[in-house]
């Protein structure tokens, strides 16, 4: 069996390449067995036990059986797509996610979610701070798994809606959540101190739902979205979340 393995963030740097092609593999091979094979062939990768496996755009467990020709992405812990429709209005109602290599304008993004049916707009802006890990930060460098961020963020948007439907928010009924409009834009590349790295803007008829959704989205995004953050210091650098 032959496989292609894709690397990101710290794994990519240790491998010295974005991907490797493996041949002469056993016909029956799981993701966990692939990790062991990689560790044997490429010891410079270090411990892979904490690395998540992705086939296509789906996370798979270590027991998942691979097929000949699969492209397997190995994702180190993260630091911290658009829905079908003919217009941005349709996409905002499902939840709209974008990656941007250009500086973010939080005010302009907030305006995109506004709607006459919504009486509240909540915008969260995450910016680069100048000090972390007892060191002075010069800038951040973000790397994303482009093909995975859209599908994963759609799952996060859906989970947000389910969470809101289950919550008993003051003065909010399930029917009132229908006009909920969600937008998330995340930077890639280098982001200077004081510049926005992520903007989440939510519009809703009620402020309770907008506040709750914005908090849920940023908290869940930092846990699940395959975007990695490297802190760059005057005397070095460090991938946030890296265990090696």
> How many domains in all?
2
Query: Largest sheet, if any?
Result: 5 strands, mixed
Radius of gyration: 20 Å
| Residue share in helix | 25-40%
Sequence of strands across the biggest β-sheet: 2-1-5-3-4
CATH fold-type name of the largest domain:
Aldehyde Oxidoreductase, domain 3
Q: What does the average pLDDT come to?
A: 87
Extended strand count: 14
What separation lies between the terminal Cα atoms? 29 Å
Rough outline: globular
CATH architecture of the largest domain: Alpha-Beta Complex
Which spans have pLDDT < 50 for at least 5 consecutive residues?
81-86
Measured by DSSP, the beta-strand proportion falls in 25-35%
Order of helices and strands: EHEHEEEHEHEEEHEEEHEE
Q: CATH homologous superfamily of the largest domain?
A: Molybdopterin biosynthesis MoaE subunit
Topology:
Blueprint: E1 3-7, H1 9-15, E2 19-22, H2 31-41, E3 52-55, E4 58-60, E5 71-75, H3 88-94, E6 96-100, H4 106-113, E7 120-127, E8 131-132, E9 135-144, H5 146-166, E10 181-187, E11 189-192, E12 196-204, H6 207-224, E13 227-233, E14 236-239
Parallel strand pairs: 1-5, 6-10
Antiparallel strand pairs: 1-2, 3-4, 3-5, 7-12, 8-9, 9-11, 9-13, 10-12, 13-14
Explain what you see.
The structure is a single chain. About 2% of the residues have low confidence. Helix 5 runs antiparallel to helix 6. The chain has 6 helices and 14 strands. With 244 residues, it is of the alpha+beta class. Helix content is 30%, strand content 32%. The strands form 3 sheets. A 5-stranded mixed β-sheet has the order 2-1-5-3-4. Strands 8, 9, 11, 13 and 14 form a 5-stranded antiparallel β-sheet that branches. The protein has 2 domains: 73 residues, Beta-grasp domain (Ubiquitin-like (UB roll)), CATH 3.10.20; 152 residues, Molybdopterin biosynthesis MoaE subunit (Aldehyde Oxidoreductase, domain 3).
């Amino acid at each position: 069996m032959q496989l292609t393995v894709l690397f990101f963030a710290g794994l990519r740097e240790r491998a010295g390449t974005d991907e490797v092609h493996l041949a002469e593999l056993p016909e029956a091979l799981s993701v966990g067995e692939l990790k062991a094979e990689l560790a044997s062939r490429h010891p410079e990768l270090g411990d892979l036990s904490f690395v998540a496996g992705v086939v296509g755009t789906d996370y798979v467990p270590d027991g998942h059986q691979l097929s000949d020709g699969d492209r397997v992405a190995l994702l180190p812990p993260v630091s911290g797509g658009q829905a079908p429709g003919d217009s941005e209005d349709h996409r905002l109602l499902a939840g709209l996610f974008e990656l941007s290599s250009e500086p973010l304008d939080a005010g302009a993004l907030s305006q995109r979610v506004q709607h006459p049916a919504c009486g509240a707009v909540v915008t969260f802006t995450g910016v680069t701070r100048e000090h972390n890990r007892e060191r002075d930060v010069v800038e951040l460098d973000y790397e994303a798994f482009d093909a995975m961020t859209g599908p994963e963020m759609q799952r996060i948007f859906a989970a947000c809606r389910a969470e809101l439907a289950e919550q008993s928010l003051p003065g909010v009924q399930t029917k009132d959540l229908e006009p909920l409009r969600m937008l998330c834009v995340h930077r890639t590349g280098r982001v200077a101190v004081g510049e926005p790295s992520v903007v989440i803007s939510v519009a809703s008829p009620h402020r309770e739902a907008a506040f709750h959704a914005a908090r849920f989205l940023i908290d869940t995004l930092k846990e699940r979205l395959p975007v990695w953050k490297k802190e760059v210091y005057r005397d070095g650098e460090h991938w946030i979340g890296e265990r090696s």
